[in-house]
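This part of the workshop introduces the protein records we will be handling. To make this concrete, we reproduce a full record directly below:
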Amino acid sequence: MAPVGMYVTAAPGAPPSVPSALRALTAVQQPAAPQVAILDTTAGSVAGFASVCGLLVAVGAAARRSVTGRRQRTSRVQLNGMNRAPFKEPYIFRAKPGDKYSYRTCQDFLQPEFGVWPPEAPDRVVKYGQVHFKGNPSGKKEFFAKKEGVKGNSENGVSGAGMDSRGCLLLDCDGTIVETERDGHRVAFNQAFKELGYDCEWEVGLYGELLTTGGGKERMTRYFTDYNPEAWPHDEPPAKDNAKIVELHELKTKIFMDIVRAGKLPLREGIEDLVTSAFANGWKVGVCSTSNEQAVKAVVETYLPEFAAQIPIFAGDIVSKKKPDPEIYNLAAKEMGVAPMRCVVLEDASIGCRAAKAAGMQVIVTKSIYTEDEDFTGADLVVGSAQEVDFEEDVMAMLPVLQEL
C-alpha cells in the first residue's frame, strides 16, 4: 500500500469498477487509522534515539574516568633554596608508614636513602619545608681571618667573601647591667613588707636562694608557700595572681624605682663600653628581664641614658613563662628581626644562661654577687665582669659563618 497522503487506495474487496464518487467516500472514511499509526511510529523513533544518545554519553564518561585513573599521580613541589615557581614533578614512589624507604621526590637530595631523617639537629633546622643550616661559631682566629679577606687555616675553611658581622646584643638587667639584687630589689621587698604589715624580712642569704625563681610575684609566692607560711595572714593561698601578692609587688616596684632614680646602685664595669661598641658596629641592642617592665625601663634610662631610646625592653609579664624558659629570648629575636644564632646574650645567672641557650643563642656570663657559685654549663664564655670582654675578639667572633663545601 502506498503511503497515506500521497495516494488513496481502495477498500479491501471493492471492485475496480466502483464509481469515483464511491471511491472518494471510502477514502474519507478510512484515513484516520493510517494517520494514527504514523504518529505512534514517530514517537517511538524519538524515544529510541534518546536512549541511544544517553548510552553513548555514559560510555564516554566511563572512558574518561578510566583514562584519568590510569594517569600518573603528580604533586607540586618546591626545590629547596631556590626562588622558583612550583612545578609538577611525578612521585618516584610513596612509602607506607614504617617502611625503611622514605618518600622521595626531586627535592630529597638532603635526605638519606634509608631510615628516618630527624627534622631538627644541632646544625640545622627545618622551617616551611626547607632546610636551614645554622653554621658554626667561627672563633677568634677564623673571625679575623674572614674580616681581612684571607682564608683561615682551620678545617672550616672560612672566607672573607660576603662577611656580615652584624648581630644583636641582648642584656639581662638585674645583676648584669646594675647590681640591683642585694641592695635594690631585696631592700624594696623588705620595705614593702613593713609598710603593708607583713611580719617578715629577707636576709641576704635567703634572698640568694629565692633568686633561683624568676619573677618578683613568683618569688613571693614561693616564700609564703615553702619558707614562711605563718607570715601569710590571708585565707586565700598565695599565688602570683592573688590580689595581695599583686599589691605587694606594685608597692615594691615603686620603692625600687625610687632607689634606682636616686642613683644609689652602681652600674657594672664594662657594660657601657660593650653597648657603645655594639652600636658603633651596627648591632642591635635589647634588654630581656623577668623584672617589672617599668623598673627595667627606669634602670636603662638612669644608667644608659644616651642609648635608652634605641634599646627595646622585653620584661615582666610580656611572656607567660619566665626564665629558664626561652620564651623571652625567642620573643626578642622575633621582634628585633634577628635570627637567634646571630644573638649574643649577656647574663649573670644560671636560669638566664639556660634560657638563652635553649633559644639557640650564644651566651657570655658575667658573674654577680649572688651567682658566683652557680653552674654555668653550656655558656660560651664565663668572666667576672663585662670589663674582661672585648667586643671584637669575644662578642663578634661568636657569630656563625658560612662554610666552604
The chain has a mean pLDDT of 77. Residues 168-178+267-401 form a domain with the Rossmann fold fold (CATH 3.40.50.1000).
